């Protein structure tokens, strides 16, 4: 079985972070997670203090959030932040109005932003949801984005749950992204019409198959995120990590 370092996306515990930033990160690190996607520290904490906290917890910064549905991105500020905390990737998500013109325009803007980050030694990523699988003249929005953006300047942080929700098989779709998906958000899906979020290994997605494709296309990190949970979110993160361990997908952890 392929093995990966495992990171988490703190959106899963966003409310808990507001209440106890350091304590919440400590609880997740104790589960065994090795990496984190994180943004600027909370008010009152300096970046150097945030970096010291993450270093103490053994959490490697792999990615930061560039924004949702906006290209108002200060590339220099984000690159400076990543230089300080040690990360390389920046991710955005967008909405689309369903026209080809809109997709092409946003593809051009992504190329420009990707070039700006490339000059700073950083990699710009796009994170999908389900709406990118809507079709324009028989072609999905995501396929158009992939075709119209430079594969060196705009890579993907695909999301297994949202691929499935969009009507595609995650493993099959990922196989199209050779050397273009360095980070993979992994989420499971409950059976049934609601298609609610599930802990990894508790739903209907085949992560053994997905992981083999991820390895083949050059994915470097698996990133656990659960947008909503029927359990305490820390318990959900622990269940996902434990199931990934049982599947044999976690690279040896030196913690």
TrEMBL record:
Q: Give GO MF terms, alphabetically.
A: isomerase activity
Which Pfam family is one of this chain's hits? Answer: AP_endonuc_2
Organism domain of life: Bacteria
What positions does the domain Xylose isomerase-like TIM barrel occupy? 25-228
Q: Mind listing the UniProt keywords for this protein, alphabetically?
A: Isomerase
- Report the protein name in the record: Sugar phosphate isomerase/epimerase
Provenance organism: Paenibacillus alginolyticus
């Amino acid at each position: 079985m392929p093995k990966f370092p495992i990171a988490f996306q703190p959106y899963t515990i966003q409310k808990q972070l507001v209440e106890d930033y350091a304590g919440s990160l400590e609880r997740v690190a104790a589960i065994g997670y090795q990496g984190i996607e994180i943004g600027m520290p909370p008010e009152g904490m300096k970046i150097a203090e945030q970096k010291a906290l993450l270093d103490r917890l053994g959490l490697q910064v792999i990615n930061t959030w560039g924004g949702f549905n906006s290209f108002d991105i200060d590339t220099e500020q984000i690159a400076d932040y990543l230089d300080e905390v040690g990360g390389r990737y920046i991710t955005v998500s967008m909405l689309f109005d369903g026209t080809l013109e809109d997709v092409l325009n946003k593809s051009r803007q992504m190329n420009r932003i990707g070039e700006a980050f490339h000059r700073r030694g950083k990699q710009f990523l796009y994170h999908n949801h389900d709406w990118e699988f809507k079709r324009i003249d028989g072609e999905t929005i995501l396929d158009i984005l992939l075709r119209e953006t430079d594969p060196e300047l705009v890579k993907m942080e695909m999301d297994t749950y949202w691929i499935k929700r969009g009507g595609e098989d995650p493993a099959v779709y990922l196989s199209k992204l050779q050397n273009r998906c360095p980070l993979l958000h992994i989420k499971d899906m409950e059976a049934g019409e609601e298609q609610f979020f599930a802990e990894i290994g508790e739903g209907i997605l085949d992560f053994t198959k997905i992981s083999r494709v991820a390895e083949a296309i050059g994915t470097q990190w698996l990133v656990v995120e659960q947008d909503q949970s029927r359990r305490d979110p820390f318990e959900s993160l622990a269940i996902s990590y434990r199931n990934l361990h049982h599947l044999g997908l976690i690279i040896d952890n030196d913690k």
